[in-house]
């Protein structure tokens, strides 16, 4: 007779743990790869993975070089993360990568290794030197007030993909 209540208890525990697991699945945990640039965006982990996915999925790769201790990077990150338009463009039309270290690809630092630096690579794996920010001495840098230019350049990268490739 003691056996039946134990079976009931086991069944209740099993059902409640399954319920808890199904509730937990609905809550999306923050992506560590976003590093604050947008948790809803799917981020790749490495430059090589980004290049592979850009080619495979026929989407431009957007590479954001930044450092945690850089106040300019933090300000740009905040503006980018708060922009619904930038977030939607990034999620829908780009392979996204943010790096806190330099890559071995010298094409990603044609005018120096400064941060923040944002570059676009098309699916033919060509670094787009024609998509730049507003500064002549740091071609690929953007400031928070340059967010509209960054969004314009994101749209340009998507448009070039449709017209050139």
From TrEMBL:
<dbReference type="GO" id="GO:0005783">
    <property type="term" value="C:endoplasmic reticulum"/>
</dbReference>
<comment type="similarity">
    <text>Belongs to the AGR family.</text>
</comment>
<dbReference type="InterPro" id="IPR051099">
    <property type="entry name" value="AGR/TXD"/>
</dbReference>
<keyword id="KW-0732">Signal</keyword>
<dbReference type="InterPro" id="IPR036249">
    <property type="entry name" value="Thioredoxin-like_sf"/>
</dbReference>
<dbReference type="Pfam" id="PF13899">
    <property type="entry name" value="Thioredoxin_7"/>
</dbReference>
<dbReference type="GO" id="GO:0002162">
    <property type="term" value="F:dystroglycan binding"/>
</dbReference>
<protein>
    <recommendedName>
        <fullName>AGR3 protein</fullName>
    </recommendedName>
</protein>
<feature type="signal peptide">
    <location>
        <begin position="1"/>
        <end position="20"/>
    </location>
</feature>
